[in-house]
Amino acid sequence: MTTPVTASAPGEAFATRFRAGEERGARIGRVLRLLGRVREVDEDLMRELGQGFDRVDEPAAALVARMRAPGGPALRDVTAAVRAAVSGRQPRADAPQELRRFVEVVTAEPDWLDREQVEAGAAVYRRLGRTAGDVLLQLSLIGGYRFGGPTDLLVATGGLTGDTTRRRVAETQHWTVLVTEPGALLPGGPGWSATVHVRLMHAFVNHRFSHDDRWDQAHWGRPINQTDQAATLGLFSGALLVGARALGVPISRHESDAVMHLWRYVGWLLGVDEAWLFATEREQHRFSYHVLRAQDDVTPAGGELARSIVATQSTLHFRRFAAWQRVYAPRRLLSMLRMFLGRQSLRELGLPVRLPWASVAAIAANTWRHRVLARTPWGRRRLQAWSRRYRDEQLRRYFGDDVPDVGAIS
Asked: pLDDT in tens for each of the 410 residues of the chain?
């Protein structure tokens, strides 16, 4: 159901961002090179990544183009068709071909899908609680700001700067909660539906900015392209596992495989090229290392986004000790970023370098909870309760009294 990666043609031109900051990317990815057991650069994979900057999710792109054309289906028609297909009713015979194709793609299930593994991966995510939140915000989100492209698109859309910062981070957090709830990724479930919604939202952004002079397509490639989407997916799987272990949480091979399977299926639903959906952590790390080598350097957009995230920590909706929390939260974030990103990356993003005291505290707490308390049934129940409270409280801190959602399509 996905577009295969094709071989490079003679004289093929890539987006000029391709490998523009390769030496820096290789330095940042040294740990991934070790974890992925990369002995030498795979030039075939590098060429595929270069091609991927100019490829998009074609079924969703075709549907959005049809929706934007005169007489095209409305968003409510698409939503109704997807819901009907989940219930076993296919779109009407006179429905646009693009709509029927999209419904077919999102409701299909890959041969490798194991629903029990999906549930096991979601359970690992829920157990991680605050650790997952820390890694996703610090290593995955802010760490991803060290490279141009997606960061520049976010600034162009106003997605993570100024007054919208808290809301957009909240929407991402809400989506990760939805896809990791029990049974949420069954067809028609809340996580499944939210992910299909995000897929359409990406296609609308692509359609809009592919016709916008503000987007330098010759340099960056397509706005939301296959390479960037696959790279982002790895931040929720491989990067999460590396970061959680760094913070003292033991994760077994079985648990690692389950988390990878969860996000492999999420990537399938998002329209990421199936060739770049990985079953094992090692495969993901190998791929992610090559992705880093394919990237451009940091741009001003990265620093703008990173500083906005830090600043918004003092504006969250705290229920207890609010005055103290507004002072503590940004300082804790900066302290943990010191361990995950290092001095040089922090300076490149224009962030102050702090001592990593918060990481030391997190490692100590995780060692006690996951290696000592979790040895008993009572301790495991306590760990699950702590994690549940954290997930609920984080959504309340970011959304306040607003109803949580995953972003509007416009």
From this structure: 443 333 345 457 899 999 999 999 999 999 999 999 999 999 999 999 999 999 999 999 999 999 999 999 999 999 999 999 998 888 888 889 999 999 999 999 999 999 999 999 999 999 999 999 999 999 999 999 999 999 999 888 775 555 678 888 999 999 999 999 999 999 999 999 999 999 999 999 999 998 888 899 999 999 999 999 999 999 999 999 999 999 999 999 999 999 999 999 999 999 999 999 999 999 999 999 999 999 999 999 999 999 999 999 999 999 999 999 999 999 999 999 999 999 999 999 999 999 999 999 999 999 999 999 999 999 999 999 999 999 999 999 999 888 777 876 66
Contact 140, 307 (CB under 8 A): no
Tokens 């990760």 sit on residue: 176
Q: Return the residue matching tokens 């990317």.
A: 25
Q: How far is CA 114 from CA 119, 253, 262, in A?
A: 9, 17, 9
Residue 186's identity, in one-letter code, is L
Q: Count the alpha carbons within 13 Å of 23 in the hemisphere toward its beta carbon.
A: 0
Model pTM score:
0.94
d(CA 58, CA 295): 23
60 CB-near residues (< 8 Å, 6+ apart): 102, 199, 200, 202, 203, 271
DSSP state, residue 403: P
User: What letters, b where the CB count within 10 A reaches 16 and e where it falls short, cover 210-232?
Assistant: eeeeebebebbbbbbbbbbbbbb
DSSP letter for each residue of 151-220? HHHHHHHTTTSGGGHHHHHHHHHHHHHHHTSTTTTSTTSHHHHHHHHHHHHHHHHHHHHTT-TTS-HHHH
First to last CA, the chain: 26
Question: How far does Cα 98 stand from its chain's mean position?
Answer: 26
Q: Which two tokens stand for residue 221?
A: 């490639």
Provide the 10 A C-beta neighbour count for residue 81: 22
Closest CA to 196 of 267, 276, 275, 121: 267
